[in-house]
Amino acid sequence: MRVRAVSRRAFVLAASALLVLAGAPVATAAPVLPAPANHWPLDETSGTEAHDVVAGRIASLHNGASFSQGRQGNALWFDGVDDQATGDQVDFRTDQSFTVSAWVNLAQKTPGTVTAVSIDGDRTSRIQLGHNIDDDNNPLGRWVFQAAENDSDSGYPTRVASSVLPSEEGTWTHLVGTYDAAIGQLWLYVDGKRVGDGTLNTPWQASGGVRVGAAKVAGAPARFWPGGVDDVRFFSRALDRAEVSELYRG
Ligand SMILES: [Ca+2]
């Protein structure tokens, strides 16, 4: 009897080992991320152009935006007054599912909204990833991912996904916004964790390109970002929780 029990255990152990060797699914396996549609590592050391390493799009630096030490390699740094970088086009549709991802470093908390990454419409930003302080609702500041319902000067109502915890300043934070067109849902992820959501009723195709360090309001740059932005990526679908977590762990 004892021999038989030992044999059975040995068989189970051997079978388990074979399953592992055969590449059986393991619960903790990291997902393989899709290739981005656009990706600016922002590792340049000088000059006035930031290069997209996937689609070759160039973001031009304006008014003193510059490269310096970032989260990984260099990053773009902005004065929060008029610095920004702008591109002419992105390579995915904004009226379908997508993801925007960036590392951001807010040098100082500023009243109202400041925008780290946005995509231009004609009159307003299609989407914005950034930070908001509202004395009535979130005086300590929160991370936000917002999308405009239409391309107009009023720009409202936008649909906002806002983090549930106060933001930090002077440190690198990973922000991801996803839009799932099938259910009209916006999600905001902070440091790999899903922290807020919102519903977008009328998705539209943005006419313009990326804007880093600012947003577009009533046809003009605004909401200038005080601090750093690194590793801006766009994906042409909504990444899921596991994928965003993997992107954060990098
Ligand atoms: Ca970088």
From TrEMBL:
Signal sequence bounds: 1-29
Keyword annotations from UniProtKB, A to Z: Disulfide bond, Signal
The protein, known as: LamG-like jellyroll fold domain-containing protein
Matching PROSITE patterns: TAT
Pfam families, per database record: Laminin_G_3
Top-level taxonomic group: Bacteria
Domain LamG-like jellyroll fold: 96-242
Upper classification of the organism: Bacteria, Bacillati, Actinomycetota, Actinomycetes, Pseudonocardiales
